[in-house]
Prior knowledge:
By secondary structure, this protein is α+β, with helices and mostly antiparallel strands. Helix content is 25%, strand content 29%. A seven-stranded mixed sheet has the order 26-29-30-34-33-32-31, with helices on both faces. Strands 3, 4, 5, 6, 9 and 10 form a six-stranded antiparallel sheet that branches. Strands 12, 15, 16, 17, 18 and 19 form a six-stranded mixed sheet that branches. The radius of gyration is 42 Å and the shape is elongated.
Amino acid sequence: MIITRQWLNEWIDVSKISSEKICKTLNEIGLEVDSLHHIKIPQNIVVAKVITCEKHPDADKLNVCQVDLGEQSVQIVCGAKNVRAGQFVAVSKVGATLPNGMEIKSTKLRGLESNGMICSAAELGLPNLEDGIMVLDESIGKLVLGKELSEYPLFNDDVIEIELTANRGDCLSIYGIARDLSVPFGLQIIEQTQIKEDENQLGIGRVLHVNAHEKVDASLLYKVIDQKELRTNLLIDLRLAFAGLYEADALVKLLQYASYATGVLLRAYALKCFAKEDKATIKIEKHKNTLDAIYGNKNTPLAFVGVSQDDTCKPHSDDKLIILEANYTPPATISLNNASANIQADKHLYRSSRGSEPELAFGMHYLVYILEQTSDLLVYAGEQEVIQDIEPTTITLNLDDLALMIGEEIEKNKIIKILQQLGFEVGFKNEQNVMHLKVPQSRKDILNIQDVCEEIVRMVGIDNIKSKPLAFSEAGRNNLAYENFKKRQALRHRAASVGFYEVLHFVFDDATRMERYGLKTLYKKRDLANPITNELNTLRTSLIPNLIESVARNVKFGKKSVRLFEAGTVFDKARDETAKIAFVFSGDCENENIANHGKPAIIDFFTFAKRVSNVVGVMELQNAEPQDNLSSPYEYAQILIEGKEVGFIARLHLSIQRELEIPATYICEIDLNALTCKQQVAQEYSKFQASTRDLSLMVDKDLRYSILQEHITSIAPKELIKFYPIDIYNSEEFGAKMSLTLKFHFQSHTRTLEEADINSSLEEILHSLQETFGINIR
């Protein structure tokens, strides 16, 4: 948002306030100043008048002008296309130095003397207006021949650029900035001159009727003008140029100027686009794309309110009757409906989606006043309007709560004055400490008491609020998020301590690769709408694919033993998140050293499982069938922790191993939420000697070990502290059976067990196994 000091001065009296103070105050109230630029025309550049203008006898593109400088007349040879006799112009006298460093001297051009230069706006360091010289008019003040141009306020101004946040659409106008500045400066907004309608003016009802559907969200106001010639002036042109809004068309400039000054969205239409016979009808209805549409005489939408306008209905110089429109739509409605409409928008959308000024009559009257001051036209009396009754946001403000938020009690009358100057309606009772506020329609960013508190603080000034020491009592820090963080941190440290290296990957993956690996992919309606690349076009459902890709890269770099892990987020088909930890071990079990004679063993299933167990704690393995194409069906198991399935461990499928050109590789993926990092609790331990016994049992090949384990646990005496398999042996002599060797550990907390005690316990276990499963000693 760009403003100039003199333009701002038309809305609040800042004549006695420096530009530096204005910038400082803007920053203090949350309107960040991006830059301050001083406009100063050099000396010896004066107001002059072109007396005569004739073609140069020896040059087609040059004109010989006699120019009146007030105290003298000089001859100037000028090459501008738009120079004419009778014009008031800016002339650089001999001896003047232009902003670009050019020094003006007497010279001869094609044999004729030239004593000075008629300047364009760009040559004076101003924004470029059009090809040719800058023509002066009395919009800048009374034109006195010979007067220094720098003495005119327009050419001795300051341009301030403000960086606005998207929620401050109310400040996208000179009026909006002035309204905010009026509070800290304690100034009143200057009332703008209102239009006065003559009793004998033709009424708008003669030429225009408006018909709006009840479901329309927009508020609209219309006037009609009968134009003979539309003109702007230098003041308007230069200000628009400073704001980057200068265009050639006079009506467009006038609409832009009024919108930029007041914040009200303004458009113009050729009346003929709505006319049937001798009267025009504007029909406003909801379009199928949910936007409010303006329909013409051909029953096709000519404009979408606050979004776009068809070029065919824009007025041209030969259009006599012109319809002027002021419109407002709640920004939330514009943003929501335009997103689904998917149509080409114009400049109006930027303002309407952020929140334009809802006081339509204010903007329309300002526009008509500017038109009457600059142009030759007739304005039809009255207006046609469609105004929606929008219920204002109401907030109850408790002054005690406000004081706690701010940390200081602000005087009640000061709060009321601030809020009223910002446009709030304030209701209260003297004996109560509560205010009832109605938020101005232009402030869609204010929704609750915290927003009101922010308004008061920024107007009072954060530096004017006394700082106080912070008093607080700290609550317990242990919560689920902290516990999850500590658990993940502990697992990462353990993984690193047993030789795994941590890696990080994008949460995105290649959908084609995931399908090839047999992994679940997201539902189509849940998938990414705008992936960053074709190779990262979906969200990962497993950590393994990226890990094995990292293994392949490390192997290509000459690594013979690759041990990696990653803890991160994966997604299910419905795009719900889950935290998992995955491990991969490829190649040698260890690095080459003297102990292994430079020939380390290749990683195997149980060595890998032990490494993983050292990280996640005690776990059980249960035979299962793989659910994807990543895992080998011959070396695959489910991981159980406390009897609950939490993940899998497997060898990488041989086909993928060969495809990636890597050695034997094992993979594991576990649900992080299923892992616990419980506080270690001291437990009683026995001081008596433990004894072990090995038993080789003949068991059925189809008997699952988990069933056998569960049965032994259920009948085991309390002295049996643990047991586990240590060997499996198959032979054709065994037929449908195999030899399973179990190691049993016995220990008592009260005495040293004797041989008879151990044998008795083993006999009871064997007897039960024989009766239940038909198991005998080998």
